Each structure stands twice: as C-alpha cells, then as structure tokens.
Amino acid sequence: MNLSLYQKLALSIMVIFGIICALVYSWSKQLELTSQHHGEQNLHLQLAEHLVQDNPLIKEGVYDYKALENLFHTLMLLGPAFEFYFVDETGKILTYSAKPGKVKRSHINLDPLKQLIINPKSAPVYGDDPRNTQGKKIFSVAPVYNQKSLQGYLYVIIGGEAYDTSLNTIKNNDQLWLTALWLGAALVCLLIAMLILLRFFTNPIQRLARDVSKIEAANYSITDTKLSNYSTQKSNEVHSLGRSIQAMITRIDEQFKALEQSDKQRKELLTHLSHDLRTPLASLQGFLEVLNQSGAQLSAKEQREYLHVSLNNCDQLKQLIEQIFELAHLENGEISIHKETFNLGELIYDCIAKFSLTAEKKGLNLTVKPAICDFPVVADIAKLERVLSNLIDNAIRHTPKGGSIAVHVKHIDKAQLFVQVSDTGVGIKHDELNAIFNPHYQASNSNNEGRQQGGLGLAICKGLLKLMDSEINVQSELGKGTMFSFNLPQKIKV
C-alpha cells in the first residue's frame, strides 16, 4: 500500500490519539471510581459501629438469627444502597437478608475487615462481595462482643447490588449518552484540528517533493519548470531546505548549460582548427608539388621563393600545433608554475628586442615606461615571457604604420605591480571585448597580415596569468587603440 508522508503521519497520529484517549479515559474512570469509593467509605465508616451500639438485638449478644435477618431486611428497605451480613470470627456468613441463590459465598476473607478496623485512614479498602465470587466492594465493619468475647462482625456492603443496578440504569439514561456524545464530538474536532495542522506543516514537504519530481521529469532542466516559492525565514527548516534544493538544482542546471556550451565551443574549435591547419598544409603541399613536378623548369629565384613560402607555412603549422597543445594542457591543468624572483625590466626589454626588427620594418615605435623599470617581481619567467610576447605580437599586427606600442609598468601598492601593453591600432568593438579571450575567437577587424592565425594567443595568455594568480583585462576604443593590463606580485606572499 503506497501512502504519502501526510497519510502515514495522519494514520500514525490517529492510532496514537486513539490509544492515548483510551488510556486517559481508563485512568480517569479508575481515578473517579477510587475517589468515589474513598469518599463513600469514609462517609459510612462508622455505620456498622452505630448499628451495633444502637441495636439491642446485636448489642446484648443474643442472636436470634431470624430476627436479625428481619432487621437486616428492614434496614435494606430504608437504605437500598447497603447490604448487611453477620459473620463469625472465622469469616463464615451466619445471617443476611436476600433471596435464595443471591449470596454466592459462604465465607469471606477477614483480613480487609481487620485492616479497616485497625487503620480507618487506609480507605478505600475492598472486601469480598458475598453476592459475587470474584467481586470486591467497599464496606463498613464493626466487631460484635458478648461479655468481652468476640462473637463476630457486622459486615455492611456499601453500594450493593441494588445500588449497582440503579446506577447502571442511570448511566443508560439519554442525558448521559448526550454528554458522552458531546465528549466524543469534542475529541473528533480535536483530531480534525490536529490533522489540519499536520497538513499545514507537511504541505511544504509535499510541494518540495512535487518540485523535485517536475525537475526530474524535465531531465533536471529548470528553464520551463515553474517551482514553488519558499519563505526566507531561517526558523522554517522545510522552507530553508526547499530554497537550498532549488539553489542546488539551479547550480546543476547552470553547470549543465556550461558543459553544453563548452562542448559546443570545442566542436566549433575543432572545426576552426581543422580549417586553420588545412590552409597552410594545402599551401605547403601545393608549392612542394610544383617544386617536385616542375623543379627543372623553374628558375633559381622562383625555387627559392617557393621554398621560402613553404618554410613559412611549416612555421605557421608548427606554431598553431604548439598553441593547440599549450591550450589543451592549460585546460587540463597539466602546466605547472615555477615562481621565482627576477627583474621585470630585463624581461620586458628582452621581449621588445625580439620584436624590434619587425616593428622597425612596419614603422612602429616600441617604448617602455618608465624607461628604467628596475622592479623585482615573483612569477614564472618563461610563462610571463610568453604572455608579453603574445600581447606585443598582437599589438604589432593590429597597429598600422606610424603607430606606437608601449609597455607601461605602474605601482598598485607596495606588493603589486600593474603591467599595461597598449597600442594605437585599429581597436576592438565594445560588444566583442568579452569574447576575445575565448579560444579561436577573432575580432571582426583583426589583421593577420597574410598569416594564418589560430586565434588562441589571448586564451593562452589568460590561462597562463590565471595560473600565476593574475587576471588580464582589456580596454579598447575602435580606431584609437587597445590596452591589455594585468597585475604581478613584487614579493612572495607570507
């Protein structure tokens, strides 16, 4: 049988409620009966003693059992709630007033009688009911003497058979049934109120279960799934759990989308790389085929030109393949960083010298600001040289003849330096600034100067700087130039 959480809790509460009601009712009835017996026994405690003292027939010790039976009959007519018995010192019932067959016992246990005589405050004390072999009744008792010799006991049952019959008749009265009905109705209303409260408290759990089922049915996508709203009260654990689960599922959904986007980008990257590799490879193959088939018909100058172009294509292929491997190692976390302290100015001037000839041919002005930048920094010198070389190479390719390129070093604070590589080139559109660091992305106004570029340089720069706990930023204005900047620590952090 499949039951919901609310149904299980409701069923459990109903069972527990019923058991508790039964126990409380039984305990209250027992307490009521005990209190009633205590009061009645204390009220009639000296009844038997007064009868012994006031009745000459008993007081003088002359026991006419027939006369005593008539006396008992008269007393029972006056007080139907009482039954009178005379027992001897062994507990044998000698006389009483009752129809034949009504009295079931011939003897009674005298211990309760003696207990009440010795200690009247021990009430309620229960003695044997002569009319019921298993029954017990409260009683009043008094010893009967004849010249100081114990003859027996006057044993008076309080609340006898006639009293019980009358009481049972009253209990069957409509008014008592009406009272019991009202009591039952009150208990049912209380149970309904408890079930409503239980429904109120478990409803958020059911909503949460429905939300999770919806998300599971939607393959854990929350794009088209409407979720419930939960309050922000920290004291409500269920609502807090609902918010946490929604936040977790939102995070999972974001990660799924990021993975899908990453997979899409990888496919696009493979497509672009295939094209980038095919172009220089096809050019290389074409020139080599010409040299192979028509080598004797070509002049020495044409052969040198074809070989030069082929070597350039080989160099482009080599650089592109190296960039692909470097980016793959960065993404897989396979590149380690070896930090050391070195002079940043020396590294910058080394990179400037490497590109000085290219810049001179293009009529570009390469400068370092300040000219003397004797700044010790803590970084991986090889990785930083790779970053600076990529940024300067990009600046040269995108800066027209007569422009300028500057590497500027600034202080951020006592422990940080700010490195800027700026140019007066073509610039980058504002809506493309966030995309230029993606692998293989090339801005719409990029200038490759006849060379095939893989578009991986800035992605590699970003990855290398991230390994050195730095972040690259870009500012650009179309037609006026671009500036890349990143920070470097001047000393090892303690």
UniProtKB/TrEMBL annotation:
EC number: 2.7.13.3
Stored Pfam families: HATPase_c, HisKA
Domain of life: Bacteria
Domain Histidine kinase, residue spans: 272-492
GO CC aspect terms: plasma membrane
Main location: membrane
GO function terms (MF aspect): phosphorelay sensor kinase activity
Transmembrane segment boundaries: 9-27, 176-201
HAMP domain mapped to chain residues: 199-257
Protein's recorded name: histidine kinase
Organism: Pseudoalteromonas espejiana
Lineage: Bacteria, Pseudomonadati, Pseudomonadota, Gammaproteobacteria, Alteromonadales
